[in-house]
Model the fold of this input.
Amino acid sequence: MMRLHLHLLSDSTGETLENIAKAALAQFDDVDTQRHFWPMIRNEAHLERVLAEIGQHPGLVLFTLVNPNIRMMLEDRCRAMGLPAVAPLDGVNDALSGLLGQEAKARPGRQHMLDAAYFARVEAIQWTIAHDDGIASDDWEEADIVLAGVSRSSKTPTSIYLANRGYKAANIPIVVESPPPPILYRLKKPLVVGLTTSADRLVQIRRNRLLSLNQRTETAYVEQEAVTREIAYARRLFADNGWPVIDVTRRSIEETAAAIIALVSERNLPKVET
Done:
């Protein structure tokens, strides 16, 4: 097991750097990474304090700093310490600058400005939370996406993730004994997507859920045959209505959401005359 000190320096929230670092580290095995997170670095005095910490725990330095003086100070000091300092967005900014014929705006946290898209995401999150688990079905026509699936098929976390991407997402549990409300079959605007999973995986997730709640696990909710019938019922419902289906058995929430967004984009493509 290798030990890595990873220093993330940003003049804004550092969210972009965290995502980049997470994606890069996922490509390597057996690495014990200790992250040192340094957001909102906007003056040399602050950077000086951070550099002292970097000197005590040398490692890889990733940064997004737009102030040229602060950036030069960081690069010079890291070079003197023999440490790699990488600005992961430089290549993208250079390519865009060349294609667009303009310089990038040197403004910290510009992507977090309170623009219309920001408020749309906030609205989507509030709407999605208010329409979780089959609530307020009369409003579903306002949704961008409606997720349907049996209990514990990751409907809620996927909905929240989609809301963070700006999509209003409702979700409805498919229960054999309690058919969905009729409005689900009449929706025009939203894309209805069925989520399914393997019976083995679903039994495991449900059993762990009951254990975490200190509830007994000898119920049909986690009985293999009953769960298999439940999944089959949901699949028939999806097929009968022509809804696209995504198997979440081996997908992360992010991967499931990406597949759903791709379906939405495909659906919204203009029709080509043949």
User: Anything to note?
Assistant: The CA atoms of residues 132 and 171 lie 6 Å apart. The chain has a mean pLDDT of 90. The longest strand covers residues 2-10.
